[in-house]
Design brief:
The complex is a heterotrimer of chains A (about 120), B (about 500) and C (about 170). Chain A is mostly helical and about 120 residues long. Chain A has four helices and no strands. Chain C is mainly α and about 170 residues long. The longest helix of chain C is centred in the middle third of the chain and has 25 residues. The chains are: A mainly alpha (about 120), B mainly alpha (about 500), C mainly alpha (about 170).
């Protein structure tokens, strides 16, 4: 099994090195003659107005929190789903109960407008 | 595996779960009139669950490998449910005007009660951790629930940071135990440890494991090196929540300390007795001497709850599971003490909360002449303080009697002596409040106490006196519940 | 042999990035180093042939918790961009105490305990399936209670983090 992950590692190294190679090659080959106009933002959008490091809305955080909780739920359900064919009826019901309890949480979040962008 | 036809043994938990869903449902979908009654729905659920817990006492069966249905668990469940009832009564007039999200508050309180019930029935390290964490998470939210209260926010963050570290350390200890024995089941761990054929040098592993577990449980029950969060949190949290943390939540720490050490680690009893001995002396002494110097009654109560934890640990230090089994086996003393302490301390916090509600202050000077402004509050507080100090004819006295008696029976004379000296020191600060209430003249408008709070106080007062004057029935229950623990 | 080398590289990577999380003056960079550190831990799980844990580590810690932490930094006033000092007056003592504790623990757990060095045997191919069966078998109560815990956490999170009360 470790061998299979080894392939994954090799793949990751190759995937990382391709863009790195490009950047390094460009850095080595480019002529270095900077002047102010050259340093301005170009191609992707406009110059920013004000500071880019601003305070964000707290609602992003709420979304992320809800996402974490349902992510953890998915982690629990994954092995349950893998074992699906081997489960007894009781096991099936337990899994459904698990989902239902968290579904109540979803209803709560919905009804409290926590999922709505304000 | 789980035995389905034994599932009724978990009915207290199921009842509370249904109650929590009901409260949430009413809060979201219900009519305005129903929403007004939310605290009473909560209390109804708790009372039903209490009936179930009480009814099921005396059973000793395993529903699953991970949860026990024994008297020990039901006993602690009853304490937890009772405290939450009192807290809910105190909240009825506390919450309106402070938050619009009352439904959430009551639901979270019910979830905290479920967490307590799960934790005290746990017979598996995974379950122990899950129960503790469940209780911690709901407690953090309850402490910080009032978002506009800066001190509550500070308390919540402090509680959370300490809790996160303590639970991580505890989890590390559990992983060491698991690595050593290859199982998370408490009884199986005990078997492995006594059966031998472990890795060589394993005794070096057990001590850090023991120490780290103690960090986790000691944090919940605020034993001294792990107590730093307690005064600030009890002081900053909404007062009914402080009452919950100082009694029910603290009880869980003790329940798990007993359950894990007695069932899983009898092989290293010498080690944990020595460790708890030291913690007990430290906790009593630090708690009491710092409490002496407080000028705020709420903070004084906070430090006094720390000191009380020190007395309670004595029972476990003096634990004796030998036959013939006596009431002075230590564990039964802890159980009785915690019952008396739950009512007394919850009541004391509720009194302080009721006074704070009117004067906006918890300073000792504002208690001057309280007897004229509210004879009811002064009278109740008097009895509760006497019980905390351990004056005869109160529940607190009987608790101390049982615990110190166990220490003497096991020949821990020095420990008993230190405890008695500490109790005398404690009388000093309890009487400072009594003196202020009754003998120092003070002026101020009369203090009206809301009806539900009044009921809660009457219950605590009645139970404190009942436990002190007619303790035999409660002693019997505490003893048999302790018996369930030692497996007799 | 190769595994040994990979282990040393990966654990060094994890430790160095973890140290940078604590020491970097820019909080935002700290969060990014945390992601790297989480990734190192995931690789350690892979080396232990605990592939499910590795996936969970990537999914929950890198995929969700790091995002949460980054959001938390972005919405805090004055945390973004500015250099916050990771120092305080006690950090020397804390470092000393931490080091001492680490040495004592290592001594206890590595030098004094003879851990069995024989391999336990290969991880069964259907490990995840066995885990799934245990979740609704032996550990059915923790499984169900975990869902109640998640529900309580959801309610608490929404009640506290909501911008306006109702």
């Amino acid at each position: 099994m470790l061998k299979q992950f080894g392939f994954l590692g090799v793949h990751a190294i190759i995937a990382l090195s391709v863009p790195l190679l490009g950047i390094v090659a460009a850095w080595l080959l480019r002529p270095k003659k900077p002047y102010p106009l050259k340093k301005t933002t170009y191609e992707c959008g406009m110059e920013t107005i004000g500071d880019t490091w601003v305070q964000f809305k707290a609602q992003y955080y709420l979304f992320a929190l809800i996402f974490v909780l349902f992510d953890v739920e998915a982690v629990f359900l994954f092995p349950w789903a893998v074992a699906y064919n081997k489960l007894t009826l009781f096991g099936l019901v337990e899994g459904i109960l698990f989902v239902l309890i968290l579904f109540a949480g979803l209803i709560y979040a919905w009804k409290r407008n926590a999922l709505e962008w304000q | 595996m789980i035995t389905l036809d034994k599932l009724y043994l978990l009915s207290p938990e199921f009842i509370l779960l249904i109650a929590a869903f009901l409260v949430l449902g009413i809060d979201i979908f219900g009519k305005r009139r129903w929403q007004k009654a939310l605290p009473y729905w909560t209390i109804a659920g708790l009372l039903l669950s209490m009936v179930a817990s009480f009814w099921l006492m005396g059973h000793k069966e395993t529903v699953t490998d991970t949860m026990a249905a024994d008297s020990f668990a039901y006993y602690f469940q009853l304490i937890g449910e009772m405290v939450v009832v009192l807290v809910t009564l105190a909240l009825v007039d506390y919450l309106p005007g402070r938050t619009h999200q009352q439904g959430e508050f009551y639901a979270l309180l019910l979830f905290a009660a479920i967490a307590i019930m799960v934790a005290v029935s746990a017979t598996d390290l995974i379950m122990v951790y899950l129960g503790m964490e469940f209780l911690s998470i709901t407690s953090y939210v309850l402490v910080g629930f009032l978002r506009n209260d800066k001190r509550a926010n500070e308390a919540a963050i402090k509680y959370f940071l300490y809790g996160a570290v303590a639970s991580a350390v505890m989890l590390y200890g559990m992983s060491l135990l698991y690595g050593l024995t290859g199982t998370t089941n408490l009884a199986a761990i005990a078997q492995k440890l006594t059966a031998g054929n472990l890795v060589s040098g394993y005794q070096w592993l057990l001590f850090p494991a023991l120490l780290f577990l103690t960090v986790g449980f000691g944090y919940k029950s605020s034993l001294v090196p792990f107590h730093q969060w307690a005064p600030d949190v009890y002081d900053g949290a909404p007062t009914p929540v402080s009452a919950f943390l100082a009694t029910a939540s603290k009880g869980v720490g003790f329940a798990l300390l007993i359950r894990v050490f007695v069932t899983a680690l009898p092989a290293v009893k010498i080690d944990w007795v020595a460790l708890l001995y030291a913690l007990s002396v430290l906790t009593m002494t630090v708690g009491n001497f710092v409490a002496l110097r407080q000028t705020s009654v709420k903070r004084m109560l906070a430090y006094s709850s720390v000191a009380q934890a020190g007395y309670i640990v004595i029972g476990l230090v003096a634990f004796n599971g030998k036959v013939p089994f006596t009431a002075f086996n230590g564990v039964s003393g802890v159980l009785f003490y915690l019952l008396a302490y739950a009512f007394t301390n919850a009541g004391a916090f509720i009194v302080v909360g009721a006074i704070e509600e009117h004067t906006g202050s918890t300073q000792m000077d504002d208690y001057n002449g309280l007897v004229k402004r509210s004879p009811f509050l002064a009278g109740v507080f008097l009895i509760l303080l006497l019980s905390l100090a351990g004056v005869p004819a109160t529940g607190g006295f009987m608790g101390k009697f049982m615990v110190f008696g166990a220490a003497l029976a096991e020949q821990f004379y020095i420990l008993a002596l230190i405890a008695i000296i500490n109790s005398v020191v404690a009388v000093g600060y309890y009487f400072k409040v009594i003196k202020a209430m009754f003998f120092v003249p003070g002026e101020g408008p009369a203090i009206a106490v809301a009806k539900p709070t009044r009921y809660a106080l009457v219950i605590t007062l009645a139970m404190t006196l009942l436990l002190g004057i007619f303790p035999s029935w409660f002693l019997h229950i505490a003893t048999t519940s302790g018996l369930a623990m030692v497996g007799l | 042999m190769i595994t040994q080398a990979i282990f040393i590289i990966v654990s060094l990577f994890t430790l160095v990035t973890a140290l940078l999380v604590v020491r970097h003056p820019n909080l935002f960079s700290s969060a990014l180093y945390l992601v790297a550190s989480f990734f190192g831990v995931a690789s350690l799980y892979v080396l232990l042939e605990a592939d499910f844990l590795a996936v969970v580590q990537v999914m929950v810690y890198i995929g969700a918790i790091s995002i949460l932490i980054i959001f938390a930094i972005m919405l805090s006033k004055g945390m973004m961009g500015k250099h916050t000092s990771p120092h305080n007056q006690q950090d020397r003592w804390v470092a000393l105490a931490g080091l001492l504790l680490a040495i004592i623990l290592l001594y206890f757990l590595v030098a004094l305990v003879q851990w069995p060095t024989t391999p336990v045997g290969p991880v069964p191919a259907n490990a995840i399936q066995l885990l799934g069966q245990d979740l609704v078998g032996r550990f059915v109560m923790p499984f169900e209670i975990a869902s109640v815990l998640l529900l309580a956490a959801l309610i608490g999170a929404i009640a506290i983090a909501r911008e306006r009360e109702i």
